Amino acid sequence: MKHTSNIIRIPVCFLVCFLLCIFVTSTNAFAGPLLKGKSFPDILLPSLSGGGNVEYLGVKTGNNFNLTDIKSEVIIVQIFSMYCPNCQKEAPNVNRLLSLIEENQFLKGKIKLIGIGAGNSQFEVEYFAKNYNVKFPLFSDKDYEIHTKVGKVWTPHFYVIKKTAIGGLIIAVSVSGSINNPQLFLENSVRALKLKK
Amino acid sequence: MKKKWLLAICFICLNISPVFGESYAFKEYIFDTGKLKPVDSILKVKIGDKAPDFSLPSLSGDKISLSSFKGKKNVVLSFVPAAWTPVCSDQWPGYNIAQELFKESDSILLGITVDNIPTLYAWTKQMGGVWFPVLSDFWPHGNVSEKYGILRSTGESERALLIVDKNGIIRYAKVVDINKRPDLGDLAKELEKLN
């Protein structure tokens, strides 16, 4: 009798676990950071009104655009919040990361940097940018729509994403918390990206 | 068998990520309250009223009273429900970089919760400290929150922002959905009106 019930129980356990896994991945209810080597969603970003940010990203003024519309081989996406102490502490490091990319003739133009303000209004994102003299584009994600799509990560979180030949996006680096040393972070990212000279 | 199932469910739950984009600084320290009733009290004060005075112990050890700012500073009261909970832990650190906003309108910010002083000490330390006074409405429990009509039936306060001008008159009183953080832009607009 016991043997028979085990024969039934084991497949039932597997079936329940399988269904639970499908539920978890499909609803994103218990999501974590998206992992290295996996694809990154081609998120839709709000339009930019003009100025340096439009030029930097190489996108059209006044239109919403996707990550894949950004003119670069690689996009570093920082998920941050004006309200997060670590993001505040990290701001000078991220500014330094931008400078390191822009000062490097090989990397300039190849890697672009953007920030997504999880739960932040336009005012809050602009306040953060002004406060820390942020020179790369920051986007408001007030209702956590993008944040949900990218794994409901703790802030700050950094994704280094490479465009594929067929127009997709692949995660080369996925890091939670502080990058601490921007030089080292950039070197490790370049290694992981295997960029061709 | 039941135990095995419980263990499996616990394992899955341990992998839960933050819903509200919380800071890494609070990772593993936050108690997930789940979605709460947005508002659970009835505001007893309104714009134009004289703000009920209070005197509460602060983190610095001094008692701070609202009336001590009369004729000197506008006062922003930020009530947050409780330490170590999801949205609250991400609200005050934002005000840390907005000191200029308060200064421009000749305002002081007072942060108030119903937690006791030792809890507030540990919590604000985890934020890396805050520039504004933090007051404890712990005992008699939630007395000030009750006076303002923002004490919830569960003993926490609402998430509320009030502006009291230099004459002690309430110029802004907003109770927001406890599950959401109030937009700094809205507060900035209200502070501008004081000038």
Overall helicity of chain B: 25-40%
- CATH homologous superfamily annotation of chain B: Glutaredoxin
**For the record, what CATH class of the largest domain in chain A applies?**
Alpha Beta
How are the strands of the largest sheet of chain A arranged? 5-4-3-6-7
Count of helical regions of chain B: 6
Helix-strand pattern of chain B, N to C?
HEEEHHEHEHEEH
Multimer state: heterodimer
Count of discrete alpha- or pi-helical segments spanning 4 or more residues of chain A: 6
Low-confidence stretches of chain A: 20-30
Query: What is the CA-CA span between the terminal residues of chain B?
Result: 67 Å
Structural class of chain B: alpha/beta
User: What fraction of residues of chain A sit in β-strands?
Assistant: 15-25%
Number of domains of chain B: 1
Task: Summarize the main sheet of chain B.
Answer: 5 strands, mixed
Give the neighbour order of strands across the main sheet of chain B. 5-4-3-6-7
Which geometry of chain A do the CA atoms define?
A: globular
Helix content of chain A: 40-55%
The overall pLDDT of chain B, averaged over residues, is 89
Strand content of chain B: 15-25%
- Helix-strand string of chain A: HEHEEHEHEHEEH
